[in-house]
Amino acid sequence: VVVGDHDGVVMCFGMKKGEAVTVFKTLPGQKIARLELGGVLNTPQEKIFIAAGSEIRGFTKRGKQFLSFETNLTESIKAMHISGSDLFLSASYIYNHYCDCKDQHYYLSGDKINDVICLPVERVLRDIPVLACQDRVLRVLQGSDVMYEIEVPGPPTVLALHNGNGGDSGEDLLYGTSDGKLGLIQITTSKPIHKWEIRNEKKRGGILCIDSFDIVGDGVKDLLVGRDDGMVEVYSFDNANEPVLRFDQTLSESVTSIQGGCVGKDGYDEIVVSTYSGWVTGLTTEPIHKESGPGEELKINQEMQNKISSLRSELEHLQYKVLQEREKYQQSSQSSKAKSAVPSFSVNDKFTLNKDDASYSLILEVQTAIDNVLIQSDVPIDLLDVDKNSAVVSFSSCDSESNDNFLLATYRCQANTTRLELKIRSIEGQYGTLQAYVTPRIQPKTCQVRQYLIKPLSLHQRTHFIDHDRPMNTLTLTGQFSFAELHSWVVFCLPEVPEKPPAGECVTFYFQNTFLDTQLESTYRKGEGVFKSDNISTISILKDVLSKEATKRKINLNISYEINEVSVKHTLKLIHPKLEYQLLLAKKVQLIDALKELQVHEGNTNFLIPEYRCILEEADHLQEEYKKQPAHLERLYGMITDLFIDKFKFKGTNVKTKVPLLLEILDSYDQNALIAFFDAA
């Protein structure tokens, strides 16, 4: 087994009698971003290649370095694929193809590249590289040009060849996304064919790694998947070649790499995984409870005793080492020449918008145990419950009037927690910064601050297409501004927009509001920007923020808008099912106690109509939903109020005095009465 780590060490080890025996270990250096095996095509792939910084190094399986190739890329290498003498690399936005270390092809991507792979040359007989890009697109290249683009349901994080060789055709490609979806696409020369896709129904973590290996032993390779919430999954294929989940196992931290193979014991295959803090773990097919006769039992007991005693001695050795290091540290920090000896630690963080419930997930992971995390925000946000979270949360009162503090919450973690997941819900139009102060359990106490921007249109997500038949409102900006300036304003307002201005003179982005399903189309070039949305509030927020940004930079903006009256009724209709569901939920919950009393009194529920029986069966789930309700209703009422104010703001009328009347109508909600009120006002 060969492992590359953040200290730049490449270590190769094998297992003998349950003990890890090191074959070789290199000296520390730059952090290793990728490790791949390579070699001459159609021979065992036994050469080790690593990417660190902008350099590629190659080692034999005995640890002798045979290659050091400085690519001179301006960015660090993020992804690498090796095929014979071809080397495919990508940094953040740049893709390069080398053959025998000579530059062949180059491509500059419009958004960040997360992974790169090439279809097997020996089977498709030419180089077809595929890039996984953050804007939910797989780009299939030919030379230095894009042959075609494939839209996938989430930002793709990892690519792998199906069965390790591209499947039956050599063209089958697996992808995993940061929101936990998995799919298979056939990359033909003319167009992609989508074979299957697994939606993330169980709301598990994002996919970080994929491997193909026959762990079940039925002669068909299974799919091994590692996720960022520590979940390891094994999918087998049924007769229709559709994947079926066979096994899963939860580890306590994110799975950074996964491989299948025979490591610990002859005849028993294993899944070997590495995790974020540096553990390498094996999940074996070896039966733990063995059938045995009387003589065998002694032998097994003896084996166990040996295992336990070797683990004990290893632990004692580690404890002794820790004591030594601690003493050394104390001496160095107390000596007069000592510089500030603050221990450094790295935080692996991820702040993403979930489409399913229009909330943000903040995941914080540290290589040592977390003591506490303090969350502070200068904009109003709600913290939602997360089932996987065992930390104790306490809220401090905030003085939002004088110092822009809307939230102060402390999460105290239980022992050995290295990963914390929080869920946050923001309000569109309210923008600012969320800060996380992460303090691990290390001495002396030290803390790192991470900042996350809550953008003005924070609930919008990039999408590939929109419905052009909807009634749209239009906002047009003209003025003396450059393409790059307007792009920077769009980056400021909306999530998922690449920071670098795209190539070309004009660009169009489509967005969808994850809460209401309203849409936004933004098209801009030098000196002109056009924004269209079926939601007046979206246009109103953009108008306010963009004029504020332009004023800051002393740029004179000409703003014009066309308001479509029909769009207001259209947005109210989109809100209607959500509002109706929440009000119906409240009614159902009010009935639960009375129905339970009847059930006790009558002894059964057969006499009830099916609707009431259903309420009783789902009582726990309904009450759980109802707990979250005040925030839900408040949110929907807030959106309707904003819509009402914005509709008349564009007409130059201030209707804030009529808001109490609007809230009265909402309390006795009727869709037609609400639409009539909007029209009459």
From TrEMBL:
Key word Coiled coil present: yes
Stretches of the chain forming a coiled coil according to its record: 301-328
Residue span(s) of domain BBS7 platform: 460-562
SUPFAM superfamilies: WD40 repeat-like (SSF50978)
Sequence ranges assigned to domain BBS7 beta-propeller in this UniProt record: 1-285
Cellular component terms (Gene Ontology): axoneme; BBSome; ciliary basal body; membrane; neuron projection
Signal sequence interval, chain numbering: none
Residues covered by the BBS7 helical hairpin domain: 565-678
Domain BBS7 GAE span(s) in chain numbering: 343-452
Protein name (record): Bardet-Biedl syndrome 7 protein homolog
